[in-house]
Amino acid sequence: GPAQAQKQPDPKAIQAIFDCLAAGLPKAWQRAWVVVTEIADTGKARRFESQSFYAESSTAMAGKPLNTCGAETVAKGVIALSAELPAEQRHWKEARLTFTSDGKFNLHYDYGK
Question: Among the four residues 6, 56, 81, 87, which has the most C-beta atoms within 10 Å?
Fold first, then answer.
């Protein structure tokens, strides 16, 4: 069948995640990102951890740890976004949600090997 266009994530959900990150962002931030990693998949349940970072340069690859309103809140938000994906795309190993200070965002899933 034709390739399905990826649905755009719910802007309200994206905003809620950003609001949680914003708690710890310095004024000079350029990029902020969340990495949610699957740490266990028992078949019945998947477990995740989330880490958040920011950089004061748009090109810096390494970020500084970001204190958010709560790692659990961020992880749940990102996991909820992926519930919109077609079933075969939901089993990602890592999800990365990046925000830039000009108001853009990018959501990327990594499916591992």
Answer: 81
Tokens encoding 16: 């809620």
Burial class (CB in 10 A: 0-12, 13-18, 19+), 44: exposed
Q: Judge whether residue 81 has pLDDT over 70.
A: yes
CA angle 110, 12, 45 (to 5 degrees): 45
Q: How confident is the model at residue 6 (pLDDT cuts 50, 70, 90)?
A: low
What pLDDT does 37 receive? 97
Contact predicate 5/84, CB 8 Å: no
Q: How many CB atoms lie within 10 A of CB 55?
A: 19
Geometric angle at alpha carbon 15, from 78 and 5, rounded to 5° = 60
Contacts of 105 (CB under 8 A, 6+ apart): 14, 18, 97, 98, 99
